[in-house]
Design goal:
0% helix, 7-stranded mixed sheet, mainly beta, 118 residues
Length: 118
């Protein structure tokens, strides 16, 4: 599956952004989807995941209660709604896909920059 992330930008602390990830090439509903991020000088970290049906979601502690992952299987889209953004959320955000039931993400989008700054 091919992935294309979009929606990043510059936002002030406390603001919101919604990232989107468009999938193509395979049956999207067969895939669990995740969002990851990588800040300058740091390793990539997992942010959130949503399972193939959309029924289950999980979040990193650092974003729990502020970020919401969702998906629209009819449109082959996955979203990351980010609220109450903090400067430490600044990073390149990547969407990723793995076949349902597998442990590793094998398809990655190109990344979209999110900068939280006043």
């Amino acid at each position: 599956v091919q992935l294309q992330a979009s929606g990043g930008g510059l936002v002030q602390p406390g603001g919101s952004l919604r990232l989107s990830c468009a999938a193509s090439g395979r049956t999207f509903s067969n895939y669990d989807m995740g969002w990851f991020r990588q800040a300058p000088g740091k390793e990539r970290e997992w942010v959130a995941s949503i399972y193939w049906s959309g029924a289950n979601t999980i979040y990193a502690d650092s974003v729990k209660g502020r970020f919401t992952i969702s998906r629209d299987n009819a449109k082959n889209l996955v979203y990351l709604q980010m609220n109450v953004l903090k400067p430490e959320d600044t990073a390149v955000y990547y969407c990723a896909a793995r076949l349902g039931g597998r442990s590793q993400y094998t398809s990655w989008g190109q990344g979209t920059q999110v900068t939280v700054s006043s």
